[in-house]
Fold these 2 entries.
Entry 1:
Amino acid sequence: MKIPRKYSDKHFSQSQNVGDLILPQPLNYRLPHIPTKPPSFLGPSLLNLTAAPGTTVVLPCRVLYIGSASLSWLRQPQLTVLSSGNTLFSSSPRLRLLHSPGSPDWNLQIGPLVSEDEGSYECQANTEPKLSRKVQLSVKAGSQGKAGESKGPGPALALQGVSSMGRLQRTEILAPETMRVFEGGTATLECVVTEHEVAPPNFTWYILGEPLDFSHHRGGILLQTEKKKRSSASRLTITRMTLSDSGAYTCCPAGAKNATVHIEVKEVQNRNSFFSPEESTASTLALDGFWIMALSFEFFYSAVHI
């Protein structure tokens, strides 16, 4: 084998074993794989919003650990791409992408609403497999009450009620009214206050009627708070859920209305058990009967041969 000219004479002699030649490698040669967390969407997988024509809504999409992935807003069922990353493809002045650098929010604002805006919208991450959250938007005339209250399901993050009457402050928990979690799982509740003139100075969570106190409640509870110009949020994460964690969870932002959801912790059957409880009992009785018959036979056999 011939030694490359750039490594001959100057670095090695021809008599040197070519097998000992060590070629330089790039700096990232054989670097260990560094695992990263996949993107994680917050809030329910499907959110129903109802608003009146002429108002403005914000379709929420909050995702953590986005990394190198990008988010897109799609209109279903036409699969029309409304945005990708920071780029908004729609030329309509009624659509606006609300995102700040470093923020986990990639919200889509639509307004003033028209009846044609009704339909399904999807916030999708370009991961494999695909991860997404859907928003079902209903545009109905007369969906606003006397005080501007929505009679239908309200938005989680919204500018709903933007009209000549002014904006209405709302408090919402990004979760179904009844959340079901398996024993040992994790529950995340995000309480959002929108359209506030002044951000709530603090959020207080009540767990089963008792205010959250880290010196009193068990471990495995994480609380995060985020304040912005027009919306603020408090995220409560509870790990290692037990049956005793079932009950009401209330978010009380100072100076704003409260919001409550219920968590139902479902018992996980013993996966190590081959039989169900009924089958296990029947199997135990059958085995007991077998041993009784075996001992009886052995006693009879011994008595005959004595």
Entry 2:
Amino acid sequence: MIRSRSFLRSLFGAALSLSLAAAPLATVTLGAGCGATASSIGGGVRRGGATDPSAYQAAITAGDAAFALRADRAQLEAAIAKYEEAIALKDDDYETYEKLARANYLLADGWLFFEQADKKELFLKTYEKGFQYAERGLKARYPAIEERLAAGVDLKDAATLVDKPGIGLLYWYSTNLGKWGNAQDITVVLTYKDRIYAIMEQVYNLDTNFFWGAADRYFGAYYSIAPSFAGGDLDRSWKHFEASRKIAPDYIATYNLVAEFYAPKKQDEALFDAMTQKVLDAPVDIIPELAPEAAVEKRKAEALRKRKADGEFPF
């Protein structure tokens, strides 16, 4: 990144305080849930072999098989249940904690997001479980991080201890925490803004290719959401989106983000239409291993078009 971390964090806070509260997809309700705290799984990580090795391996195998079928919600929920069985048998299995963080994110983002009116508590709890599992995985993988967090150090100040094997834990922690906060109130978002930014910066520093250009995609959205006086910059936003697109041109979530955040700021209705159409036209298996996630993005593109028809975007 070009500017110093402290400067960008201050911009991030200003941008969030002014713009995330009004972001169209943000379910920000001032007052309800005010002051919510991101809790952790209690107790120190129990290290060592599985208490029942055969049952542990069976749970991992069953969980992986169910997750492969995650386009079916019941299979996704079954995968979560099996992975939870596995970590109960081997608490220092950081790889399974990462799987749980990702699976809970998908359950919240891909299903419960569209059911918030009736299942808001479960929606929030699922994101919460996602970041709790990711944090537990970081503690399991990195004893030094566990020690620092136990001493009261914030994860934002320990994120640089993470190397590439832990990048997924960082990413799924920040995405779950960010959406958990954004679905509550602006005070929660502001409480964790520095932590999320620092973690995503470490993801960027470790591997810009990770998860189909995830870090550039994040910063593309960030620089388009922020107002100009608080660091928003449509040129920088576009460069990050383009960098992510070049890494993974078939990752269709990028196009939804361009449509939702960049195109309205740019006052480019044609770009909005082209980006959402690109998502809708893409084969659901354009990236075969991400077909379930692509199906979610298609639902989001339809929702974006409906919001445009309802006059939510200033074209």
